[in-house]
Amino acid sequence: MASSDAELQYSSTPAFSKLEIYDTIDVGEDCRTNIQKHYIEIICVFGQDKLAGIVRSEYQRQIFCYENVSDVQKRCFKIGIDVEVHSLPADSVALDGNRFAVSFPESSVIKVYNERLQEDRDLNVDGKCYGMDFMNGKLAVCFQDPAKICVLDMDTGFIHHIVNQPSGHQLLTAPNYVAFDTDDGRDVLYVSDRASWGIRRLTKIDMNGNMLASFLSLSKDDTSRVVSVTDGGVLLVHDGIKLMSERCQQVATLLDQKNTGPIVSVKYSKQQSLVFILTMFQKDFTRMDVFKLS
Q1: What is the largest CA-CA distance in the chain?
Q2: CB atoms inside a 10 Å sphere around CB 87
Q3: 88 lies in some domain
Q4: In sequence order, what DSSP letters do the residues of 150-192 get, joined into one string?
Q5: Do residues 196 and 203 touch, judged by C-beta distance below 8 A?
Q6: Mean pLDDT by 10 residues, the chain (294 residues)
Q7: How many structural domains are present in the chain?
Q8: Does some domain include residue 148?
Q9: Which of 21, 143, 225, 255 has the fewest other C-beta atoms within 10 Å?
Q10: pLDDT tens-digit series, residues 238-254
């Protein structure tokens, strides 16, 4: 079932309906003590209350990390290794074993890092890799040209490709972000896609490519990150942050982009029930606000 901006169909509200400010982390100030003229490109919540990210300076990219990120008193910051990739990262995701992965589309590689901020391994992929999510040992990755979702079982190495609907009709146009969830015990994916004629689309599909629900928008906003949270809710970066139901229906606007800057990255900590939102106010200034879902 599809809906438009003009005719939103609101579903029952999940167990939460708003964001309450919890903390603001001055990542820029912490980085300035180590790196001059920096820009924070991406963040990722992983392991036991850790947050990693990539900071770019004029000449290099480096990994940084906060330990005890949700605890103001115990929080500590450190800079890790240089990133040996000379292209923009697209997305990041937490993996098992205190690891996290970062996708680099122009280099066709997904780099995996361990808790010591060291390179663990490279996944050299066939094509430009964009948004990712991970659940129960499976890594879902968005690709464009051709448009598809690849799901890698990291235990067996088996790769499942989602390209078309079972009927043979085209399923995806230009998927850029994806989020795992479960529905009645089965794995499902929420995919942020660009449908025909530039229309933005959030689509819920199963692992066979069956379309279960969708939301359409005529907005020109092209970020549209999607983050799965608890209680069947989904956060969609779309002119701010929208709370969507498991049927891809808008429930509420949690954050209006008019009151922030362009949203660079959004990550959710299931352990702490916290949402980390990285926004850009100026060219060389990035701010990270932490919110509690309530």
Answers
A1: 56
A2: 13
A3: yes
A4: EEEETTT--EEEE-B-TTS-B--SS--EEEEEEETTEEEEEEE
A5: no
A6: 36 66 83 65 94 86 93 91 88 95 96 93 94 97 93 94 92 93 92 78 94 82 77 83 90 84 89 89 75 88
A7: 1
A8: yes
A9: 21
A10: 888 999 988 999 888 89
What is the pLDDT, as a whole number, of residue 181? 94
Residue of 78, 80, 91, 84 lying closest to 44 (CA atoms): 91
Check residue 256 and give its pLDDT. 85
SS3 assignment for 93-112: EEECCCEEEEEEHHHCEEEE
The type of residue at 124 is: N
- Alpha-carbon distance 205 to 216, whole Å? 15
What tokens does 123 get? 């996944």
State residue 177's pLDDT score. Answer: 95
**Is residue 11 domain-resident?**
no
- For residue 133, being part of any structural domain is answered with yes
* Amino acid present at 192: S
d(C-alpha 235, C-alpha 288), whole Å: 17
Give me the DSSP letters along 12-74.
Answer: ---S---EEEEEEE-HHHHHHTT-SS-EEEEEEEETTTEEEEEEE-SS-EEEEEEESTT-TTT
pLDDT at 65: 94
Range of the domain at 122: 19-293
Which pLDDT belongs to residue 10? Answer: 37
Confidence at residue 209, expressed as pLDDT on a 0 to 100 scale: 95
| Residues with Cβ within 8 Å of residue 290, at least 6 apart in sequence | 21, 22, 23, 24, 25, 70, 274, 275, 276, 277
CA distance 55 to 40: 4
CATH number assigned to the domain comprising residue 140: 2.120.10.30
User: What pLDDT, on a 0 to 100 scale, did the predictor assign at position 18?
Assistant: 83
